[in-house]
Amino acid sequence: MEYTVHKLGKIAGISTRTLRYYDEIGILKPARISSSGYRIYGKAEVDRLQQILFYRELGVSLESIKDIVTSPSFNASNELKAHREKLLAKREQLNSLIANVDRTLEAMEGRITMSDKEKFEGFKQKMIDDNEKKYGKEIREKYGNEQVDNSNNKIKGMTPEQYAEVERLSAELLSTLNAAYKTGDPSGELAQKAADLHRQWLCHFWENYSKEAHAGVAQMYVYDERFTAYYDKEQPGTAEFLRDAILIYTGMKG
Predict the structure, then answer these.
(1) What is the spatial distance between Cα 210 and Cα 214, in angstroms, rounded to a whole number?
(2) Which domains does the chain have, with CATH numbers?
(3) pLDDT at residue 120 is higher than 70
């Protein structure tokens, strides 16, 4: 069956403007253009749109989706299997949070007693799941399964106070880093404070700290575009600035 932009947008639940944009950026071209100038989509395009929407639901950027679905090695069946695994993991994460909310409501209503540690279990598991989804493959290849599993177990074992401290350090690191970046000096007092805050934050996840590993993580922030995007979202160049500050802090500069 074939569809016009309007009909395909209606059955897919997206706007015709979105479909036209997908055509413009080359992520989803129509099968053909009719004699009247209408974009016409066939089965192959419908299947690709489904894949695109799957990736969008998982939070993948359009640029990355385009690279994936236009790759010569793209295999729809394998990708669907991978989507299924990711969606199952997402469902497990949501079920954990829902269970945590249910227990919290029961505790508030006096039906059960909930420890402070239990109140944070769902959030800690979400942190682990998010990290695995975004960076799991690369981190495990770089540091090994044992070290990553030990780090995840350390997160699970965090007390409410430790969890709150991680959140505080993360917020202070970003605010200090933004201020330091404006000075333009990675060796300056603010930049070195940001590097130390980063060390403190890392130590909540690592069993053992080393300057070499710290410098390696800093390099990864620049080499891996996902980390770079996280630190550069407010000010482009921040990831490189943090890398330089940490290399100076650890004595690994040059």
Answers:
(1) 6
(2) 3-69 (1.10.1660.10), 76-156 (no CATH), 160-250 (1.10.490.50)
(3) no
